[in-house]
Design a protein that fits this description.
about 80% helix; about 240 residues
């Protein structure tokens, strides 16, 4: 009777084990089905994802390339239309002024004088040899160069760096405007007239600095500087 009473228990144990194995098997099938569905979804979505990434990369690269090209063009235009011609004018003006004093000092019987002494003699003795030589140089050499520089500044102010105009440039334009009136007065015999707006002596130094800075920027943008930044720009331009 003991064996008979134990048979139902064993049967229940067997049924429980079978139920557990069925549950595990069912869970495994569910996991496998879920994994398969996830894989299928990823496979379906992957081309769309790659297309989106490709579009984003292409758009970003095109934008960067356009920005780089525009920057190269602007720097080239700044050098060609503003800073280069302006530097040439003020350099020629500075050299001409030095030659004027040098030639005057080379005259026989004349003690050499410094630029400041020359200017003082011109102002104190309007009919003296220094003043006569000065007015000739101003009319034929110095004023035409200054007018050319002022015209460049006025015409191409849009190419200036920064958000304001350098005071030295404004002073040059004002100096030229004042001397246009002075030249008329000289022609009428008023040789004692001089402008209260002096020529900006530091403009040559400023123009040289700005021109050199832009040339270095241009070399970097074109990958000609040999620097790390230039190397990275060359690499980016090939992408």
């Amino acid at each position: 009777s003991a064996s008979q009473s134990g048979d139902p228990g064993r049967r229940r144990g067997v049924r429980g084990q079978s139920s557990s194995r069925w549950a595990v098997s069912s869970a495994a099938r569910d996991i496998a089905d879920g994994w398969q569905m996830g894989t299928d979804s990823l496979t379906t979505f992957m081309p769309f994802l790659l297309a989106c990434l490709s579009y984003i990369f292409t758009t970003f690269h095109t934008l960067r390339s356009e920005q780089h090209r525009n920057l190269v063009e602007r720097v080239g235009q700044q050098l060609q239309a503003l800073y280069g011609p302006l530097l040439a004018c003020v350099t020629a003006s500075k050299s001409s002024y030095e030659v004027m004093i040098s030639q005057f000092n080379a005259c026989p019987g004349k003690p050499p004088c410094s630029p400041s002494e020359f200017r003082t003699a011109v102002r104190n003795h309007p009919n003296g040899e220094e003043a006569v030589a000065y007015r000739m140089w101003v009319k034929t050499v110095l004023m035409p160069l200054s007018v050319k520089a002022a015209d460049i500044i006025i015409a191409r102010a849009d190419l200036l760096e920064g958000t304001s105009i350098e005071p030295l440039l404004l002073q040059l334009v004002a100096h030229v405007s004042a001397y246009k009136v002075i030249l008329k007065q000289w022609d009428q015999g008023a040789v004692e007239e001089f402008s209260t707006m002096p020529y900006p002596e530091e403009i040559h130094k400023w123009a040289s600095h700005e021109f050199g800075r832009l040339k270095r920027r241009q070399a970097t943008l074109l990958g000609l500087s040999g620097s790390m930044k230039g190397g990275l720009m060359r690499l980016a331009s090939k992408l």
